[in-house]
Design a protein that fits this description.
Layout: E1 2-6, H1 12-22, E2 28-32, E3 40-46, E4 49-56, H2 64-83, H3 97-106, H4 111-122, H5 126-144, E5 151-158, E6 160-161, E7 173-174, H6 175-178, H7 182-199, E8 204-212, H8 220-233, E9 241-247, H9 254-262, E10 267-270, H10 277-282, H11 289-301, E11 307-313, H12 320-333, E12 337-342, H13 350-358, H14 367-379, E13 383-388, E14 399-403, H15 410-417, E15 421-425, E16 430-434, E17 440-444, H16 449-454, H17 456-466
Parallel strand pairs: 1-2, 5-8, 5-15, 6-7, 8-9, 9-10, 10-11, 11-12
Antiparallel strand pairs: 1-3, 3-4, 12-14, 13-14, 16-17
Helix pairs in contact: 1-2, 3-4, 3-5, 4-5, 7-8, 7-17, 8-9, 12-14
Bound molecules: iron/sulfur cluster.
């Protein structure tokens, strides 16, 4: 167990994230201590042995961010020496490292200067600093096409899936048990759409993303009902992208694809996560590689020319060779967009329980795997355009979206860079209001589908209060 004694309780969050990056399986306990001379002290032990100690002038009230960065750098250097490990992203433990790079470029710094900044201040590796800046440059172009002050994007959450994946921490209910409630759920979504139609008519709707869950658990008539309602109620004349995350191949049929196409969907995701049937079975996805290939090809036949494919690196039991195989097989299909996730071990997932019993040895998410995926993306003509990190990623790496020219997921960038408000409707969704000064406020909808439906008026009230 790690015990971190700090004179500043408000440094606990940052310290916990850094310590967890070096020692993922350890529990971290925070304790308050006092300092006699007013200096800041961090005293950190692992199983009773001191692993890091910092005593420095407490300048937090003068410049919080400079103070935090200096403290984290000092701890990082000590732990690096002790463990022999370097973290690819250095002291950066936030979700959006590219946001910092975008900020640097916005200040007028050159790419080279922005890279140097990422390396010097956050101790990011050469490779990650370059990646962050490369993505930031592409993101800025996408952002320049968005209505940041007078526009918004819409997220529609469909919280049903065929089965629950081992690593899932999203709002997801088995469609088999909820089939009879889906019409009622769609009706609740239409009520939320009414609210948006009424209150955002003077704003420009830039993108729509239907996610989940698995939106294609809806029947073709339900997909059509929902998307037709959207197009009748909202002004889509400036819409740049309508994505439906079809996700699970076992939920995709030709009829559903046709319904989506008819309603103007121009970007979909068909996700295998791995091209190994053995792993698919193990992680509880209940579909095969062949089903994924068939769903992908059917989507192409139905005219979808912007198909994203998601894969996950570090799935239990998978080796470098499995990743190489996955990439080789995906290359044959040539998706327009490839999203490479590093496995995140979420507290709410069954995976966490599995790791507790079986240990972390079987979960290897390495930089080499990421290199193989990135090289495959390059061979397919895809370049990185968005990136985010999550807590408890097994290899302390990142999730990266790669896309060919003009196929980047615009919603992904809008959401990740927090440059415009995202109106999110449906169970378990979070609406984000981005104000003109850049400040962000949020409201959520109940995760529990029954509660969401029974309190739909309150869900709408929450949005009204947020945008008052
Ligand atoms: S498809 Fe996605 S949302 Fe559904 S169970 Fe799997 S991880 Fe969760």
């Amino acid at each position: 167990m790690i015990i971190a004694k700090l004179t500043r309780p408000n440094m606990q969050y940052d310290m916990n994230a850094l310590l967890k990056s070096f020692y993922p399986p350890e529990d971290v306990v925070m304790e308050d201590i006092t300092s006699e001379d007013g200096d800041f002290i961090a005293d950190i032990t692992l199983d009773g042995e001191r692993i890091a100690y910092v005593k420095m002038a407490d300048t937090m009230d003068e410049d919080k961010s400079a103070f935090k960065n200096e403290l984290r750098r000092q701890i990082y250097k000590q732990l690096k020496e002790l463990t022999g490990r370097e973290l690819p992203w250095g002291i950066l433990n936030g979700i959006r490292p590219t946001k910092l790079a975008v900020k640097e470029l916005d200040c007028g710094r050159s790419s080279k200067e922005a890279e140097e900044f990422m390396k010097k201040v956050y101790l990011a590796s050469d490779e990650k600093a370059r990646l962050a800046v490369q993505i930031a440059e592409r993101e800025r172009k996408i952002i320049s096409g968005l209505h940041t002050d007078d526009g918004y994007s819409l997220y529609i959450g469909i919280p049903f899936c065929p089965t629950t994946c081992l690593y899932c921490s999203f709002t997801s209910y088995p469609i088999g048990q909820w089939k009879n409630k889906v019409d009622e759920y769609v009706t609740c979504l239409t009520k939320e759409i009414d609210y948006i139609a009424e209150n955002f008519k003077d704003k420009t709707l830039d993108t729509i993303y239907v996610g989940g869950g698995t939106p294609t658990t809806l029947e073709p008539d339900q997909i059509e009902r929902l998307l037709t309602y959207v197009s009748e109620k909202l002004d889509l004349s400036h819409l740049q992208e309508l994505t439906v995350e079809s996700g699970r191949p076992d939920s995709i049929t030709r009829d559903k694809l046709r319904a989506m196409k008819k309603c103007g969907v121009d970007r979909i995701s068909v996700n295998p996560q791995t091209m190994s049937d053995k792993t698919l079975k193990f992680i509880g996805r209940h579909h095969t590689v062949a089903q994924y290939v068939e769903a992908f090809n059917t989507a192409r036949e139905e005219g979808f020319d912007n198909i994203n494919t998601d894969i996950i690196l570090g799935l239990p039991g998978e080796t470098i060779d499995d990743v190489r195989h996955t990439i080789t097989e995906i290359e044959k299909l040539r998706p327009d967009d490839l999203t490479v996730h590093s496995l995140a071990i979420k507290r709410a997932s069954r995976l966490q329980e599995w790791i507790r019993k079986n240990g972390l040895e079987e979960v290897k998410d390495t930089a080499e795997m990421m290199d193989i995926a990135a090289a495959g993306a390059e061979r397919m003509g895809l370049s990185p355009y968005y990136l985010y990190r999550q807590k408890n990623m097994s290899g302390s790496l990142e999730n990266v979206g790669f896309a060919s020219e003009n196929h980047a997921g615009i919603y992904n960038v809008a959401m990740m860079e927090e440059v415009q408000s995202i109106l999110a409707i449906g169970a378990g969704t979070v609406t984000k209001r981005v104000s003109a000064d850049g400040s962000i406020s949020r409201c959520d909808c109940h995760k529990d589908v029954e509660l969401y439906m029974s309190q739909i008026d309150e869900m709408i009230e929450r949005k009204k209060r947020l945008f008052r």
